[in-house]
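Comment thread on ticket #2218

A.B. wrote:
> Attaching the input chain for the structure job we discussed in standup.
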Amino acid sequence: MPPLVTSNAIMMCNHGGRVQVIPKQMQVSVQGGFVLCDPDLIGSPITGCQIKVTAFTSPCTVIVETLPGSTSETVAVAGRPAYLQTLVGITNGRPPGEVTVIFPGQAALDST
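C.D. wrote:
> Ran it. Output below, let me know if you need it in another format.
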């Protein structure tokens, strides 16, 4: 299983903007970071997107959805599936950008 995404994660839009990670639950952590669950990332701010404002373009400022395959089928916190390193998010940029996980916030999940 790919690593879980935690509040220590680094996520970026494909135009260089960085997602501000804000955990919504603070009961379950892995390697010092709170596990992020669906739909925690919806509405998360993005700063530094390099898309210039024109009549046809605008920068990414928030995540508006996450795509199928972004969450675990076996790990959940309070009934909400945990996000995985495979996460792909869609932004509100014009055209919409994609958010991917650069670093999930933890090296590996200890299964013992």
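A.B. wrote:
> Thanks. Noting for the ticket: Residues 10-103 form one domain.
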